[in-house]
């Protein structure tokens, strides 16, 4: 087993244990079936990943917990995130208890509301329950996924507490300037899912391919390094063992001003996943 990678740490504020840090690069388990978790996550841990992201909805929390138990990383050396589905925001403690049992944990590092599903009008209630879990010491930090500025403003206005993290779809094709500016102004960490926009063909884009050739890296490494240099936390995902260490090899090159300017011009507002304003409503 290798030592942890030289991954920078990002400070979490708001609803977090004081001084809590999150590794800037994480390994995501979305669309990884339970039978593939041990191979993929085991390879990620062997590579040196120490940040794992799963969710109740993924259906693989038990497999994640079993793999983490098998590999034997000391609990304080790994950062674990899971999420509550919007159907369960009316009883967050029950959903949380189920996730913790499946993961085999006593304390969680980060618990997220998966989608706002605003028309159901449950996310503020769910957020209040999550704050109670954090204040009770059962989870070290709480945040959200896929929240837009009005959703975040409502949490602030009705509970007085903003999330530590907003995990959102973010790639060179969907740069989310307004939302990221709100995060920066209010001390919310931006965490990116679907950073490679594979379904949109990002890795074949001439700008990304050109930067990859220039730096003798892969297009995926360019897209991920762009996120790192923005200061975002970013999640990678693969079940192909050679790609797992490759996608983590991001810390011995820098995109220059020409690269970043070219990538900035790729923004199309193009989603590969659902629109948070309508999903789950």
Describe this structure in words.
The chain has 10 helices and 10 strands. α2 packs across α3, α4 (123-135) packs across α5 (149-159) and α7 (206-215) crosses α8. The strands form 2 sheets. It has an 8-stranded parallel β-barrel, surrounded by 4 helices. A two-stranded antiparallel sheet has the order 1-2. The protein starts with 8 loop residues before the first strand and ends in a 17-residue tail after the last helix. It has 281 residues and is of the alpha/beta class. α5 (149-159) links the parallel β7 (142-145) and β8. The model has no long low-confidence stretch (mean pLDDT 96). It has a single domain, classed as TIM Barrel. It is globular.
Estimate nothing, just give the exact number of structural domains. 1
The helix tally amounts to 10
Q: Helical residue percent? A: 25-40%
**Major β-sheet strand ordering:** 3-4-5-6-7-8-9-10
What CATH architecture do you see? Alpha-Beta Barrel
SS-based structural class? Answer: alpha/beta
Average pLDDT, all residues = 96
Could you name the ranges where pLDDT drops below 50 across 5 or more consecutive residues?
none
**Main β-sheet, in a few words?**
8 strands, parallel, barrel
């Amino acid at each position: 087993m290798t030592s942890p990678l030289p991954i920078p740490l990002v400070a979490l504020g708001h609803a977090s244990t004081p001084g809590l840090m999150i590794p800037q690069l994480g390994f995501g388990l979305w669309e990884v079936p339970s039978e593939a978790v041990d191979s993929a996550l085991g390879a990620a841990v062997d590579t040196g990943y120490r940040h794992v992201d799963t969710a109740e909805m993924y259906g693989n929390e038990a497999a994640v917990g079993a793999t983490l138990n098998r590999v034997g990383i000391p609990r304080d050396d790994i950062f674990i995130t899971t999420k509550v589905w919007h159907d369960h925001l009316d009883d967050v403690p029950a959903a949380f208890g189920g996730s913790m049992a499946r993961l085999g944990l006593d304390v969680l590092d980060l618990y997220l509301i998966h989608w706002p599903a605003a028309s159901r009008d449950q996310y503020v209630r769910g957020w209040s329950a999550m704050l109670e879990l954090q204040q009770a010491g059962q989870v070290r930090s709480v945040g959200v996924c896929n929240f837009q500025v009005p959703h975040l403003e409502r949490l602030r206005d009705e509970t007085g507490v903003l999330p530590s993290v907003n995990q959102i779809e973010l790639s060179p094709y969907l740069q989310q300037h307004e939302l990221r500016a709100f995060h920066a102004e209010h001390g919310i960490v931006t965490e990116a899912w679907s950073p490679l926009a594979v379904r949109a063909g990002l890795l074949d884009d001439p700008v990304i391919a050109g930067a990859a050739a220039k730096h003798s890296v892969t297009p995926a490494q360019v897209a991920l390094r762009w996120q790192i240099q923005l200061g975002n936390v970013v999640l990678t995902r693969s079940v192909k063992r050679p790609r797992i260490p490759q996608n983590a090899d991001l810390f011995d090159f820098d995109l220059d001003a020409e690269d970043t300017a070219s990538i900035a011009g790729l923004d199309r507002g193009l989603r590969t996943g659902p629109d948070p304003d309508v999903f789950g409503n």
